[in-house]
Design goal:
This protein has helices at residues 9-20, 38-43, 46-50, 68-79, 91-103, 118-127, 150-159, 180-189, 226-229, 248-258, 265-301, 338-349, 371-387, 410-415, 453-464, and strands at 84-88, 109-113, 130-134, 138-139, 144-145, 165-169, 176-177, 193-198, 221-224, 237-241, 307-308, 321-322, 326-330, 355-356, 360-364, 418-422, 435-437, 442-445, 469-470, 479-483. The chain is α+β, with helices and mostly antiparallel strands. Among the domains are: 283-387, Aspartate Aminotransferase, domain 1, CATH 3.90.1150.10; 410-483, Orn/Lys/Arg decarboxylase, C-terminal domain (Ornithine Decarboxylase, Chain A, domain 4), CATH 3.90.100.10. The structure holds pyridoxal-5'-phosphate. Residues 91-93, 96, 117, 119, 169, 173, 197, 199-200, 225, 237, 440-441 line the site of pyridoxal-5'-phosphate (PLP).
């Protein structure tokens, strides 16, 4: 690792510009905080506002970097063992869509797990690529989708030999990983790229106790949510590339197409600083999160009525290993859906979790947590389990509906004339919009897919379980927008 890893070139350039005291006749309109409303000053310190600038030559240009941004991106690439890194200010959504726009063309087939995030649907609409959905392994006990098996990917590639890419989600939101090395080998043997939505894995390289990261296993590109699990500001992510298959100029052009010409420098600097933090203390901080999470997992599993799966539950195709910092606690044994448990945990313990599903709640421990937070979580969960014990929930709900029948590509359906029809009368029609639940933001119905009665029943059951509808025009699900 180069000695430059102890520097933050982009953050340093911003500081130097502010310190220079140049009289500002440029954007942004608040002029380095001079005209900022007191409420904005409360949000961002004076020093922060002074550095909230852009477009000066010494601050470089994200769309065509050749100065401090280029240096900062090169340091990020080095730390992650990538050939290239691109900073993203429109979240991992932006990183994924840039990756897809760089790798795919209209009409290209791309293999995608059905539990993919909605940003991938956006990438399909933008590129005009054709999704071939693969079923992830479903775990009945947990009621969640896990990863892909190499066998499923092999079958998909055999049935679609012209596929241009496999787009894997690794790890899953719940921290489950699978045999990505075999998926990479299969994709490459077929002349396809392996693109990875690694939103939930930006911390993986910093602890030997965590599963390996996607690039180390053969991925060509990976989109990382630096903001989700490391120390950068919300909305910031990185796109990484390694090896000969990636057309760098296409990535640059796609990124430039999808990115503002005025990216926020506080966001960009936060990526530079998050990389610096990992270079300096990554092993210690992420290692601590793993140890704390293991302690919480053991304590939860020692509590009657609660269960938090660990690596011993995995070790099978499609669900091989676990990022220990993800704590999925099953509340179904207490007779509570995840959503009901979330309400109680927030109301009675002032504890906010990351995600709920029909049977579980998900807690994240990150490099920010200490023994104090871990202990508070254990204490709250033990008390919660003691006070809320009813009959276990009956397990009747499907995790994911059947794989859809595609009538149109997502792009064709997005641009097709459409109309809203009553929910109950939508079976047999072709969806013009997406419907999912947030989090995790996985669409269960995508534009261009045939609507079935089974799917309508599934959506209804999820809504009744208290999960938050996301995507459609009518979140009450009174109507669905379909292709006219
Ligand atoms: C698996 C997955 N991919 C992509 C994203 C999109 O990330 P962002 O919110 O940074 O755009 C998310 C967000 O939750 C996600 O869970």
């Amino acid at each position: 690792m180069s000695g430059n890893q102890r520097q933050a070139p982009l953050a340093a350039a911003m500081k130097a510009y502010a310190a220079g005291g140049a009289l500002a006749f440029h954007t942004p309109g608040h002029k380095q905080g001079l005209g900022a409303h007191p409420l904005l000053k409360e949000l961002i310190t004076g020093a922060g506002l002074r550095q909230e600038v852009s477009l000066m030559a010494e601050l470089d240009d994200l769309n065509c970097p050749n100065g401090c941004i280029r240096e900062a991106q090169a340091l990020a690439a080095e730390l992650y063992g990538a050939d290239d890194a691109w900073f993203m200010v429109n979240g991992t959504t932006g990183a994924i869509q840039t990756m897809m726009m760089a790798a795919l063309e209209p009409g290209d087939e791309v293999l995608i797990p059905r539990n993919a995030h909605r940003s991938i649907l956006g990438g399909l609409i933008l590129t005009g690529a054709v999704p071939v959905y693969l079923p992830p392994v479903l775990d009945e006990q947990l009621g969640i989708a896990m990863g892909l098996t190499a066998e499923t990917v092999a079958e998909g590639l055999a049935a679609h030999p012209g596929a241009k890419a496999v787009l894997a989600v690794y790890p899953t939101y719940y921290g489950v990983t699978f045999d990505l090395a075999s998926v990479a080998a299969l994709a490459h043997a077929h002349g396809a790229m392996l693109l990875v939505d690694e939103a939930h894995g930006p911390h993986l390289p910093f602890s030997g106790e965590l599963p390996a990261e996607a690039l180390a296993l053969g991925a060509d590109m990976a989109a990382l949510s630096t903001h989700k699990l490391l120390g950068s500001l919300t909305q910031t992510s990185m796109l990484l590339a390694k090896g000969p298959r990636v057309n760098r100029e296409r990535v640059r052009r796609a990124g430039s197409l999808l990115t503002s010409t005025s990216p926020n420098y506080l966001l960009l600097a936060s990526l530079d600083i998050a990389r610096l933090q990992m270079a300096e203390y990554g092993d210690a901080l992420v290692g601590r999160a793993v140890r704390l999470a293991e302690g919480v997992r053991a304590a939860v599993n020692d509590t009657p009525g609660l269960w938090c799966f660990g690596p011993e539950y995995l070790g099978r195709p499609g669900a091989e290993a676990l990022d220990a910092t993800k704590l999925t606690v099953q509340t179904a044994w207490l007779g509570l859906t995840g959503a009901a448990a979330e309400t109680v945990l927030r109301r009675d313990y002032n504890l906010q979790l990351e995600l709920t599903d029909a049977y579980n709640v998900l807690f994240l421990l990150t490099m920010a947590d200490t023994e104090r937070e871990a202990y508070a979580l254990i204490k709250a969960l033990k008390d919660f389990a003691l006070r809320h014990r009813r009959e276990p929930l009956a397990r009747t709900r499907l995790v994911l509906p059947e794989l859809p029948v595609r009538k149109l590509t997502p792009r064709e359906a997005f641009f097709a004339p459409s109309e809203a029809v009553p929910f109950a009368l939508a079976a047999g029609r072709t969806a013009a919009e997406e419907i999912g639940f947030y989090p995790p933001g996985v669409p269960l119905l995508c534009p261009g897919e045939g609507i079935t009665t089974a799917l309508l029943e599934h959506l209804q059951a999820m809504k009744e379980a208290g999960l938050r509808v996301s995507g459609p025009e009518d979140p009450a699900l009174g109507t669905i927008r379909v292709v006219r």
